[in-house]
Design a protein that fits this description.
This protein is mainly beta and 62 residues long. The protein has one domain. It has one helix spanning 28-33; strands at 3-5, 10-15, 18-23, 41-47, 53-60.
Length: 62
């Protein structure tokens, strides 16, 4: 994971060299996601009708 913003409810991951922003992270940012910053992760997203990537789940990529 590349970055996150607690107040604006998003995180950013790098996928094949591109930075991808994922929104609607919710309360998971505080406790679960924080320790994963700058570490490899596997993230599950859903794409809405407008092409926005919405957070579903995240786990470390061990």
């Amino acid at each position: 994971m590349r970055a996150l913003h607690l107040d604006k409810d998003w995180l950013e991951v790098t996928v094949e060299g591109d930075h991808v922003r994922v929104t609607d992270v919710g309360e998971a940012v505080d406790d679960v996601i924080g320790p994963m910053v700058n570490k490899p992760v596997v993230i599950e997203i859903a794409v809405d009708d407008h092409g926005r990537r919405k957070f579903v789940d995240i786990e470390p990529d061990d």
